[in-house]
Amino acid sequence: SDKKSQSSSDNPKIRTPIVCVLGHVDHGKTSLLDRIRGSSVVSGEAGAITQHIGATVVPIETILAMGGVNKNLKFNIPGLLFIDTPGHHSFTTLRARGGALADLAIVVVDITDGFKPQTIEALQILRGCKTPFVMAATKVDRISGWRSFPSETFLSSFAKQNQRVIDLVEKKTYEIVGSLAEHGFSSERFDRVDDFARTLAIVPVSAHTGEGIADLLMVLIGLAQRYMEESLTLAVDGPGSGTVLEVKEEKGLGATIDVILFDGTISVGDEIAVASSTGVITTKVRSLLQPRPLKEILIEDRFSRAKSVAAAAGVKVSAPGLDQVIAGSPVKVIDGNENEVRESIEREMTEINVTLSPEGLIIKADTIGALEALCKELTTAEIPVMRAEVGPVTRHDVIEAETIKTPYYRSIIAFNTQVLPDAQDLLNEPIYAEMVELFKGNVIYHVLESFLEWRDDMKRHLDQKRFEQIIFPAKMVVLPDCVFRQNNPAVVGVRILSGKLRNGVNLIRKDGKKVGQLKTIQLRKENIQEAKAGDEVAISIDGATVGRQFDVNDELLINIPERHVKVLEAEMMSHLTIDAREVLDEFTRLYRKENPFWGK
Ligand code: GDP
User: For the Tr-type G domain, which residue ranges apply (predicted)?
Assistant: First the structure.
């Protein structure tokens, strides 16, 4: 049945593009796929759609028969292959040659609900993979007042709606355009798009009534025709390459692998290589199985057998020794150099295409695809990653995270993956609990947001701590009739004129002459830590005698170390009041008279 769709196109060398559906939960991914799968019934060409293993192929004839198409256009692609499992996880797990397996994608967004976290995540993932896609604005039938014209094209049905509904659909569509713009995409309703390379198309659809489905498929065909022809040509010939969707035990067959073949041909008797938990294994294809068409339901064997299958297709491969195969692994027909094939599989299983920094956080994910998607987003947000690995969070990760120098990178992101119990135990120990932060989640957008929130908090906290140690400027005047003690230490009353006074600082006169070190500050005979502008307090000064180093009515300044001046002027000016800034200025002028670059 696969052959039929291949041979009926004008150019049999072009393979079927692979399409994946992404979007927020409950926005209608499954329903949309179901509707597309059922569209043969609608087009009156029962059986034209072929059910593959893990995928459905919709031939170009079926799409053309749905109407709304300029029949004079020439199409080279044989049809579209839809991966049956929708969602981000399936998109990122299914890979081909280190990139996304899917050639095209549909992002669904409920037109009545608008953008949600996973809608944004879908955009991020697709942008990262540079995968062309179309927006399906689903559930258009739920727009209040919508009259359904089942299976009609969007424009035909839209033209028959009343003005209020038309306005409402326009409004909702422009809300989506607005949300897309926020994320850097220029978009329009599909019928207003001139250049599909520049403008993202939005197709309002209903999975329930079938309205707009034909338009959606046409936009996909258009995208494939325009942007993918080169990568799709000649992919039917040559040794087969695919991706393992699932490892399944089948009665009478043992362990089998469900494979999406994206390149070349696989035949019974071929030697294939695939990654298992014990390393790359090679085995010989015993049989190639595809689902039986519905009309043959009475035949006992659920599968029909094929001698060979060409890309793109979903096929079940039965061969000895497949029980330890890892889902997501590449499968390759060995044609010549076995070692080369083995090495390329090993590389694809381990080689992560991410940029690592010497200093940054640690990320773990369940699959290479998920890891790369997360990493790309972190890079965009200018967050450095020190280590990126597939697998659960281990004790080793926790120990290593604790040694990261920058406190706000001392964290681990566990994306779609578990934390091993002993790693969790370690994280619960007080030292690690304080030092290492763990972020867990399965939506990139969410983990990113919570990391950023934590990091900014942490930065603020660190700045605060650093600022607390910085000596602030202050100016005070020694009050007359308030000399409580002449020396050892001198104790006098002062009024703070501006700034902030703390214990331990050194005092100087306005002419720069040193006075002594401030020991204590007292307010009504109580020791206090800090005095501010306007306060009148008693201070004790070590190393000074009243009448010698300073006298009543003298104005005194805090002698701020050069290092502190640098921080104050570079980072803290916004934390200083205007009068404190003036005092700082007065103070630095004393030093800069001799050295204009002092403290700079
Ligand atoms: P998924 O989680 O994205 O796969 O969403 P589903 O396909 O499971 O749909 C979620 C809910 O929305 C279900 O109750 C569907 O019946 C409903 N739904 C999906 N598409 C449509 C649609 O086009 N029109 C209407 N009215 N409901 C829809």
Answer: 14-233
